[in-house]
């Protein structure tokens, strides 16, 4: 039986790239301003990655959970944008 933990196989550079991708996604979907805002987004991205890294039982699960969260964030953002843009259109004929 292979007892090597998958976490030992994942290089810190790979994890940093994933944190950077999470950061880019957060920048698109969360308001921030200035260096303090960027630092807060970085803290959020890092905490999220660390939690998934610790909880996942395999590298596949780790990548899947991160991908699903980012996809969910993207979908919620698109739904919110779609619902706000459709409100004025729905009211156009009622005046």
TrEMBL record:
Record GO terms (molecular function): chromatin DNA binding; transcription coactivator activity
Spell out the InterPro entries in the cross-references.
KIX_dom_sf, MED15_KIX, MED15a/b/c-like
Q: Does the keyword Lipid biosynthesis apply?
A: no
Q: Where in the cell is it found?
A: Nucleus
Tell me a GO cellular component. nucleus
Q: Which SUPFAM superfamilies match?
A: Kix domain of CBP (creb binding protein) (SSF47040)
Q: Nucleus: present as a keyword of the record?
A: yes
Stretches the record annotates as Disordered: 75-95
Q: Which UniProt keywords apply?
A: Nucleus
Enumerate the spans annotated as Mediator complex subunit 15 KIX domain: 5-83
Q: What is its main location?
A: nucleus
The protein here is known as Mediator of RNA polymerase II transcription subunit 15a
Q: Which organism is it from?
A: Noccaea caerulescens (Alpine penny-cress)
């Amino acid at each position: 039986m292979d007892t090597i933990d998958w976490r030992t196989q994942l290089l810190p550079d790979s994890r940093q790239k994933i944190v950077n991708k999470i950061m880019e996604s957060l920048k698109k979907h969360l308001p921030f301003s200035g260096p303090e805002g960027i630092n807060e987004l970085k803290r959020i991205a890092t905490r999220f990655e660390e939690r998934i890294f610790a909880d996942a039982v395999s590298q596949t699960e780790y990548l899947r959970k991160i991908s699903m969260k980012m996809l969910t964030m993207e979908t919620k953002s698109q739904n919110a944008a779609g619902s706000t843009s459709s409100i004025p259109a729905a009211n156009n004929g009622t005046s």
